[in-house]
Amino acid sequence: MSARTALDLSTYLVTDATLCGERGVTAVVAAAVDGGVRTVQLRDKVDSTSNLLRLLEELATAIDGRAVLLVNDRLDLAIAARASGLPVDGVHLGQGDAAAAIARDRLGPDAVVGLTANAPAHLEALRRMPRGTVDYLGVGVIRPTTTKPDHPPALGIDGFARFAAEAELPCVAIGGIVLADVAPLREAGAAGVALVSAICAADDPRAVARDLANRWEAAR
């Protein structure tokens, strides 16, 4: 079964090495997946390629097939990881990163390609792409957040709902989200909810992930 077939975006973690602290990213990811996170995106803008390849190997071992593993921005890193045999499922790209069409071409039809989108122009560009180029959209920010200081204006839940209604792809809400937002965002059309600081900075990432998963299921 391909990663695209098994893609579960409902409970989504984006990593932050600084917020994970001395515990390290691998320990936080392992706890979060134990708690119910089903998609993990490694986001690290500063570490070296060699260190990130080692980290991806650790994450793949900790996840052990229980969650989809994606790389943020670094198409080159995802390609290198897959070439070395690591079970990295794909990438999540920003509007300024490698073009989605290039990612699809380089990673193949079974890889996962996610794309950040938050404006009508982004949806127009998507409609011009061949079907299957992108699998899902990361839409936000929902609220202002310090984990991405250069973020666009916050959409709020109502703005997210309007955007998701116009999109032709599953939309994952991200940015400044707290657990109380899970049910309203699912009602607003979210295919999933992505957390960063709420899990990475938590004293007990497993418990927060379990709460996230339970709230998502209850909202159904």
UniProtKB/TrEMBL annotation:
Q: Where does 2-[(2R,5Z)-2-carboxy-4-methylthiazol-5(2H)-ylidene]ethyl phosphate bind?
A: 145-147, 176, 196-197
In the Enzyme Commission scheme, what number(s) does this protein have? 2.5.1.3
InterPro entries, per this entry?
A: Aldolase_TIM, ThiamineP_synth_sf, ThiamineP_synth_TenI, TMP_synthase
* Residue sites binding 4-amino-2-methyl-5-(diphosphooxymethyl)pyrimidine per the record: 41-45, 72, 116, 148
The UniProt GO MF terms for this protein read: magnesium ion binding; thiamine-phosphate diphosphorylase activity
Name the reaction it catalyses: 4-methyl-5-(2-phosphooxyethyl)-thiazole + 4-amino-2-methyl-5-(diphosphooxymethyl)pyrimidine + H(+) = thiamine phosphate + diphosphate; 2-[(2R,5Z)-2-carboxy-4-methylthiazol-5(2H)-ylidene]ethyl phosphate + 4-amino-2-methyl-5-(diphosphooxymethyl)pyrimidine + 2 H(+) = thiamine phosphate + CO2 + diphosphate; 2-(2-carboxy-4-methylthiazol-5-yl)ethyl phosphate + 4-amino-2-methyl-5-(diphosphooxymethyl)pyrimidine + 2 H(+) = thiamine phosphate + CO2 + diphosphate
Cofactor binding mode and count: Binds 1 Mg(2+) ion per subunit.
Pathway listed for it is: Cofactor biosynthesis; thiamine diphosphate biosynthesis; thiamine phosphate from 4-amino-2-methyl-5-diphosphomethylpyrimidine and 4-methyl-5-(2-phosphoethyl)-thiazole: step 1/1
Q: Which GO terms describe its cellular component?
A: cytoplasm
Per the entry, what this protein does is: Condenses 4-methyl-5-(beta-hydroxyethyl)thiazole monophosphate (THZ-P) and 2-methyl-4-amino-5-hydroxymethyl pyrimidine pyrophosphate (HMP-PP) to form thiamine monophosphate (TMP).
In terms of HAMAP family, this protein maps to: TMP_synthase
Q: Please state what the protein is called.
A: Thiamine-phosphate synthase
Q: Which gene encodes it?
A: thiE
